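ok so for the tutorial part 2 we go from a plain amino acid sequence to predicted structure tokens. step 1 is just haveing the sequence, like this:
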Amino acid sequence: MTAIKNKPDAMNQDNSRRVDKYWIPIVARTIDLLDCFGAATKPLTLEEVVKSTGIPHTTAYRILHTLVLRDYLNRSGRQYRLNQLRRRLKFGFANLSKHVSLAVEIEESLKAATSAAGIDLVVWDNDRSADKAIQNAREMAVSKVDLAIEFQLFENVAPVISDIFSRSEIPLISLVNPHHGTVYFGVNNYRAGFAAGTALADFALRHWKSQIDALLLLESPRAGRTIQSRLVGAIQGIQERLGPLPEKDVHHLDGGGDRATSKSAVAGFMKSKGKKRILIVGINDESAIGAIEAADQARYGTELAVVGHGGSMEILDIAADPDSPCIGTVCFHPERYGPDLLNFALPIVRGRSAPVVHYVPHEFMGKEALIRRGHAPATARST
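step 2 — the prediction. this is what the tokens look like for a chain of 383 residues:
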């Protein structure tokens, strides 16, 4: 018969604990219990904690109850999990594109806010690609981020992305373009468009005596109905000031939310139609900048008025130029996204309920206001 030998290290450790007058058993058990959660990949029940640690049932329950009250653990029903805020958090951010000014400014703001809060931020570039957005979502899920933030504009892949994070039990915040089953952080797209429309209508009232020859709506059908509602709002804003527009004067162009595509679409329209007084609404700043570049090449100036959506520094520089056909943009204040987004995200990570929609403020930033504030146009900055 083979004798069972105790491990020397374990025996010595037990013996030292018995003679150590400073040893506090309940503290040691609490640490053992917390270590149990640190190694777990899913929530644990009281029974699982008892089995894993060997702590008596009543003692384990009292420790769990105390740790919940002191915010070291979160409880949901019969399950407990480690409060994520008791360790360094890791957020994932899949950004629209490193080549889109608005997206770059949002990313810079978020990086500054997470760094100040001691949160790790891992950034992926969706590169304005639906396939890339799906791939990035999968990589983010594998990396086990505590919270995911998604900025992509393809409505058809939004359910796929939402499902990836749902199955991985990772909370997801969608920016600018709402994703089904997630919480949304961004502007009220319809109201933002309405602000753009009223600004264009006011311009036409002051400068053209309400007479316009054409309204161009630079769309992005792939972005889906929510983003497209900006243009619905723009039409309503214009018609509220100027009255109903003849259907023949409203032109829907697919600019793809892209500068080059919008430039090509507007240039083609100007060559074929020969209209004189044109209002243009870009679904975003990139589309508006593309329209402005087309107008510059076609030598359109005072008979053209362009408005964008976003408020990137690039389009603000353009709008501040007195000679630019851009009369302003609906500003989403991307520089504020970081701190506001963090305040919105942290309760979600804590397991608290959050509103399904959180609208951020927007405002129209017009040429006159920018000039009054002393905002230097792009031409002045480059000299």
